Structures are given as C-alpha cells and as structure tokens.
Amino acid sequence: MNTNNTQHNVIDSSNNIIHKEFPSLWEQIKEDFTTPQLKDPAFNHFLELFLNYPGLIAIVHYRIAHRFYRKGFKLLARLIMGWTQFITNIDIHPAAYIGRRVFIDHGIGVVIGETTQIGNDVTIYQGVSLGGVSLERTKRHPTILHNAIIGAGAKVLGDIVIGEHAKIGSNSVVIKDVPDQSTAVGIPARVINKEDKQEKNEKPTRTKLPDVDQSMFEYMLCRIKILEDILTNMPDDNTKCKDFLRKRSDELSTKEKELGKAYEEFLQALHKRDKTNS
C-alpha cells in the first residue's frame, strides 16, 4: 500500500493535527478495509471483516458520520454513532478527527472523545479511553500522533500529546505528554525509556545492598572445591601434608574474611536505609 503521502508530525498551538491531506471518503474506507489484514496476524478471510472486527465497523460508520457532522448535520451524525455504539460497544464522537489506516483491534469498550485528534497508522486496543478531564468547550481530549500504539485498557486523559511511534502500556493512565519514540507505563504513566537513560547519567540516590546470598553461595562452592582438592591431592608424606593443609586453610580463611566483609557492608547499608526512611 502506498503510504508516501502520510502527513508529517505537525500540530498547532491547541494540539490539533494540521490536516495536509483530505482523501475522499471512499479512499479512506478502502484503506480501512485493508488495514486488518496488514496489522492482525489472525486475519484469514475477507468475510471476517464483517463479523469479527467491530473496530472496523465502528471506523467505517465514523467516517460517514464525521462527514455529516462537518456538513452541519450533527444530530444525524450522533444518531449514526449511537447505533454504532449499540452494535459494536465502541463509542466514537463524530466530531473527533481520526486519520488514515487507524486500526481498532478487538475494540470492545473503546471510547474516543469529541476533541480527540488521531494521526495516521495508529493502533488502538480494547478498553482504551481517549477522554477529557474538563467540562470546558475547548480542546480537552488527547492528540495521538502517527504510528502510536495504545495498549489494552489504557486511559489517555486530557489535552495532551502522544508522540509519533510512542507506545502506551496496557492499563496505564496517561495524564502528561509522551515524547516521540517513547514507551509510557504505569498509574500514573511514566516514560520508562527516557527516564532509564536519565538514571544512567545521574548519580544514584539509593543505597545498593550487597547480595549476601550470592556471596554465601559462591563461598560454599569455593569451600567444596578446596576440600575436594585436599582429598584428591593429599600428599603421603606427613611434613608435606602439614604444609599443604596450612596453605589450603589460608585460602579458606581469606574467603571467610571476604564473606564477613560483605555481610558487614550489608548490615551497614540496611542501617543507613532505615535511618534515611525514618
């Protein structure tokens, strides 16, 4: 499919996508019908589009209702989308802007608010809410830029921007902008890859506790190995035997001191952490 005319990441001061292309309604619907086979590996037959893809049905109905809404037939547009909500369990306001090749997978429980702006090639999974947090009659819903992925159950709330190629984790609650090429997860969502890079460059503020269990395990393995060497290589001569055992005993003593030091550091770190928390 030719996607060379995909619009660039351009939004205005009100977080609205600046529309540089207005394909015909028929062209948009044709693209919508080809999108599931490109984005869903479970797709097998054309007839499935009418029975197993409520997201597709909702998008097609939205395309028609949106044209009516723009022409001023707002009540008719709302009636179309009301019927669509009844048969698909997907609630899309006809005033929202949805770009080309947007794929709503599974679809049950998806809500797309009135002032939502969605770019091209966006994927939205079931249970997603693109909602508002204000009663003002202004831009109050999110802007989703091109190629973003919104995971199942995610709530993206308010007049915020989700960047190009951004990914929103399942069941996350997003209330702040997410940069391009980023992944946001959690409640409230945080941008994990951006913050991880930041953490690598910053001086650690948390006390790192030594792994005493690992140190003990390594010590026991070392002790077993030394004892096996003693039994295998024990000299017959009594004088040599004493020197051999003394040397091996020194190795064991060194390992015990290392383990004791690790344990002491562990206790000090615990004390420091408890003092900080209190």
UniProtKB/TrEMBL annotation:
It holds the Pfam family Hexapep. One of its GO terms (biological process) is cysteine biosynthetic process from serine. The gene is cysE. GO terms for cellular component: cytoplasm. Keywords: Acyltransferase, Amino-acid biosynthesis, Repeat, Transferase. Belongs to the transferase hexapeptide repeat family. This is serine O-acetyltransferase. GO terms for molecular function: serine O-acetyltransferase activity. It catalyses: L-serine + acetyl-CoA = O-acetyl-L-serine + CoA.
